[in-house]
Design goal:
The structure is a single chain. With about 290 residues, the chain is α/β, with parallel strands linked by helices. It has 3 domains: about 110 residues, Cobalt-precorrin-4 Transmethylase, domain 1 (3-Layer(aba) Sandwich); about 80 residues, 3-Layer(aba) Sandwich (Rossmann fold), CATH 3.40.50; about 90 residues, 3-Layer(aba) Sandwich (Cobalt-precorrin-4 Transmethylase, domain 1), CATH 3.40.1010. Strands 11-10-12-1-13 form a 5-stranded parallel β-sheet, with helices on both faces. A 4-stranded parallel β-sheet has the order 3-2-4-5, sandwiched between helices. Strands 7-6-8-9 form a 4-stranded parallel β-sheet, with helices on both faces. The structure holds iron/sulfur cluster. The site of iron/sulfur cluster has 15 residues, from helix 1, helix 4 and helix 8.
Length: about 290
Amino acid sequence: MIRIVLSSVRGFCSGVRRAVAMALEESEHAANGVFILHDLVHNDAVVRNLKSRGVTIVNSPAGLPAGSTLIFSAHGVSDALEREARSLPLTVKDATCPLVKRVHGLAADRHREGRFILLAGKRGHCETEGILGRVPPGCARLLETAEEASAFVPDPKLRYVLLSQTTFLASGFERIAEILKARIPDLQVERTICPATSDRQEAVRRLASSCGAVAVVGSPESSNSRRLCESARAAGAAAYLMSESSPVPEELRSFSGTLGLISGASASEEEVRNVLEHLLELPGAEFAGEFR
Ligand code: SF4
């Protein structure tokens, strides 16, 4: 038998809700075509819905039709990309989450104060590219793991500040900070993981401590959803990333016990409900209510 409990912490975070509302509004009213620079948010269902409304995802502002609308994704863009887009004959709309914008501002301010930026984040992710691109080349360094932090050799002539991608794993960030502080006594540490991320990481830990397995609704590209799976596993539960269009993981077909259901910040409430319905099709599955 499978008892499914649903976390009360689920659905879009405020930054995703704002970005999706902006893109839907533009898709209805912009007259000359709507383009989004990179996926608006890392969620397949959201991107599919926008594409079905005629929105096109692009990787560069270059070559877009004059008079069209270009939207920056919730993950933000680098200074160079922003300047390029604003120099073109486009209507630019900025859906960057205000909490990502805050990290852009912090990186630029600390750079102006003479500090070298160390950023805990995922290599190649749009958000980290955008933050690193808010200071001149050579003035910031990305550290993805504790091993990379251990291998980092600080320059005694420089002063450093440590920031993080907003969706980084809190425990991973503290570990990196601890390693760096041991070698950089005057390291400035700015905790820039956003509240939506830390609240969900706390919620998934609580959920995992009372469940044998946890299903996290989110797309594989979603950094915060993958971190929720890592947090659930660290708390001792099996964890599976699911979306409304993916099949139920094979392992859950033979699972018996309590299964927790939670979502990443870019999965809608509707997608969570759809995944719940798929899970309820498993033999012996029943919905046990909301987990607070
Ligand atoms: S996860 Fe945090 S930083 Fe990212 S969009 Fe949501 S609120 Fe903003």
